[in-house]
Amino acid sequence: MSVYPYLIAVWLFGVGLWGVINSRNYLHLIMCLMVVQASTYVLLLSIGYVNHGTAPIYQGISTKALVVDPIVQALTLTDVVVEATVVALLLGLVVQASKRFGSIDPDAIVRMRD
Amino acid sequence: MNAFLAFVLTLVGVVGLLVVLTNDPVRQTVLGGVLSLLLAVVFFAVQAPDVALSELAIGTVAVPLMLLLAIGKIREHRAREEEMRE
Amino acid sequence: MRRGRLIVGGLGVLLVVAAFAWACTGLHAFGHGTTRYGEMVARATVPQRAATNAVAAVTFDFRGVDTLGEEFILFIAVIGVSILLRSLRSETSEEETHIAAAGPRGSEFSRWLAAGLVGPVAVLAAYIVAHGALTPGGGFQGGAILMAAVAAIFVGGEYVVLLTIRTSATWLDIADALGAAGLVVLGFGGLIAAGTFFQNFIDKRTSGLLTGGIIPLANIAVGLEVAGALLTVVAELLDQRLLSTRT
Prior knowledge:
The complex is a heterotrimer of chains A (114), B (86) and C (247). Chain A contains four helices and no strands. Chain A is an all-alpha fold. The longest helix of chain A is centred in the last third of the chain and has 32 residues, at 70-101. By secondary structure, chain B is an all-alpha fold. Chain C has one domain. Chain C has helices at 2-25, 36-49, 54-62, 64-86, 95-102, 108-130, 139-156, 159-167, 169-194, 214-243. Chains in contact: A-B, A-C, B-C. The interface between A and B is large, with 51 and 42 residues.
């Protein structure tokens, strides 16, 4: 039971990656990328967890209390916002592709360009 | 590692699978919002309130909004493309 | 052709997942995180940096250079979105008044709800940005919530107000750039005043909202940047949507 969060992260990663490979629609591909991102967040935060630890905010608790690791939380926090903007960039690319080629099917666009 | 955390992690795994298996983009957007909400609950349970706040604000408001606007625009392009072909 | 690709892809995914799972069994058990660096940083937050939010201290003070890098990723991604989507603007601007008059409206209840929510949510965003060094929150969360306040206008159906936002896209760009530049200026301030880039150079003996030296200022800069960036993206996508709605 003590590796369960890691297994969930591995599961999400595999499922998302399979969705990206198997996708027939660029929007579906972007959503599967978001599932892969979720897997990295779960993995990072599970690494830093300490049993009976509390959140690393020192309001009202002594400075010697047992807290979880704040560094992985800082990494995940900036990551969440930045990856939302990268998804926006991908959406801009998909909208451009749809206007130029008229479809958002990866296979159809590859055939069209030949 | 208590029962609540195990339960929510299982839900996250199930909803992640559902997101990949759905084909309609609008339904996928809603399921993505649900996935972000469940992730925020997981982050609270792992004692990470900062990350949970960030994930809530971004994953339930910003990303579905951008996705729905892009879906609408792509449907316009498709409709105009079919009009021009006729 | 596609089936062959799927089989090879499936094998690859299985291999990666197996290797990943095997690597995870070599990690420490869940709940026994033993990172010494994290423990040292957590203990040093209150005495050294005079801030109670250890995560904000790590983001803006101990690892400020990493945050600067992420800021620039955000900035460049938004520049990319602007370049991609502004080149699709080929319609003339006579459509604007046409759309403003005939745009679809939301239901009455949703308009009242949105109008009631915009003010409190904007104040909440400012509160979360300002108290970033003390309680959970900070620039990233506050910026996203500010963007949610503007999105509430969209849900309420007030397309006219959103047209104003679109034409004021230059203000959003300025806000975005100011936020990014603000963070760099704070870093250079540390370099000039104390000899190390991003060193916390402001006097930390004050109390109240100004504790933490550089952290509240960095929070404000980041909040401005995140809100400006997300609103620019929404304005570009909305622009496409509005301009092509023909009646």
